[in-house]
Amino acid sequence: MSTLMAASNREGKKLNDVIFQAGAAVRQAIAQHGSDAVVNGTLGSFALDDGSVACLPVVEKLFHALPMNEFVCYAPPVGLPGYKDAVIHAIFADQQPDAFIDAVASAGGTGAVHMAIANYSEPGDAVLTSDWRWDAYGALCSEIGRNLQTFSLFDGQRHFNVPHFQAMVNAVCRMQDSLLIILNTPAHNPTGFSLSSDEWDAVIDVTLAQARKGKKMTILVDIAYIDYAGEKNDVRSFMKKFTGLPDNVLILFAFSMSKGYTLYGQRAGALAALSCSKGVIEEFHHVVTYSARAAWSNVNRGAMTILTMIQNDKALQQELEREQRTVFETIRKRSGIFIKEASECQLPALPYQSGFFISIPAHDSAAVCNHLHEDLIFAGPLAMGVRFAVCSVSADKMTGVAAKIKKAFDVV
Ligand code: PLP
């Protein structure tokens, strides 16, 4: 019998990342058939029409002009001076509610979600999110001994499922004294869904009902895709609702530079917190900075500098917003083709508003995706369905894709 060395609580930990596996299949197909022949709907990055990952020109220009010390020097665990204010400005724009706010740098949005789970849920407790979700939430919870539970994102009419959200919040709160809820909105991965103003009101009502019973309630809003969700202040208008909340309701934001600034590999983001209690925000600062020091010490200095430069300079900010708008419009054109054709061929895609992905529920998503390979179309086989990346497929290639996906569904 061979000896294994990992600690006993690591047993069974093996990453099964279906999206990275699908990416490997795409690379193989491109090597065999050439990139023109392949439709890569697996990629979680905005791509140009030729399929290459895009970088916003303003970001590229600033990055190339950085002095060498921006690449080699350490930064403080909390983030560079000025980064906190830049993050807060990038998160809220003109929709900052009247409350105490702070932010601590993180290794991307992933790091922000990690720090939220580590500091605002108890070991062994449940963390709640929707069934359609970014797959990494599960590993982020189980890595540090939390248990991810889900509510149904959609009801039978494909509206936000308030009753099931409420039922799950209430059920979990009967078992534990605090609850962390993760909501990825606007432009949810993998469906492109965004909570409406009324749906946000319902979420806050359900949360407040538990807070009145003395539970400590935290909502983490994962805004990874907010910069491609629509008009800057419209898509942030829900943030004004977080005014006058009781001290035992904390709102967190997972901010990421990956999508909005096309700096996926540079690993920069932040966890921001908002509360009516000064003490809660002071505590946030201490515990989260401690987590940052213990997890990664400090994060990418150059990326933090770029965000600070952009947020402090009106002209650069306008340049960035123009470029983000072009990306948004490009994705809208691509997704528009998919949605129109899906409706024509009766492919039951979930309600998409904006963002990088459209999803279609499937019992055997792997079989559907495998079948699609015959047409050299590649998509992400998620547990609940097929995810297609409208962010990475040109309008030309998009034409006809929905019908081919429908055909694969019909065969499987
Ligand atoms: N949240 C969601 C929903 C995502 O899809 C991603 C990335 O794919 C992230 C957060 C975090 O991204 P990063 O760690 O690259 O900032």
- In the CATH scheme, what's the topology name of the largest domain? Aspartate Aminotransferase, domain 2
Q: Quickly give the CATH architecture of the largest domain.
A: 3-Layer(aba) Sandwich
In helices, the fraction of residues equals 40-55%
CATH class of the largest domain: Alpha Beta
How would you characterize this protein structure?
This protein folds into two domains: 13-57 and 317-411, Aspartate Aminotransferase, domain 1 (Alpha-Beta Complex); 74-312, Aspartate Aminotransferase, domain 2, CATH 3.40.640. 42% of the residues lie in helices and 16% in strands. It contains 14 helices and eleven strands. Helix 8 links the parallel strand 5 (178-184) and strand 6. It is globular, with a radius of gyration of 21 Å. The mean pLDDT is 96.
What's this, in brief?
It contains 14 helices and eleven strands.
List the helices and strands and how they pair.
Elements: H1 18-33, E1 39-41, H2 57-64, H3 69-72, H4 83-92, E2 100-106, H5 108-120, E3 126-130, H6 136-143, E4 147-151, H7 162-175, E5 178-184, H8 197-212, E6 216-222, E7 249-256, E8 269-275, H9 278-295, H10 301-311, H11 314-344, E9 357-361, H12 365-372, E10 377-381, E11 385-389, H13 395-398, H14 401-411
Parallel strand pairs: 1-10, 3-4, 3-5, 5-6, 6-7
Antiparallel strand pairs: 2-8, 7-8, 9-11, 10-11
Helix pairs in contact: 4-10, 5-6, 5-9, 7-8, 11-14, 12-14
Pyridoxal-5'-phosphate is lined by residues 44, 108-110, 134, 184, 189, 222, 224, 256, 258, 264, 269.
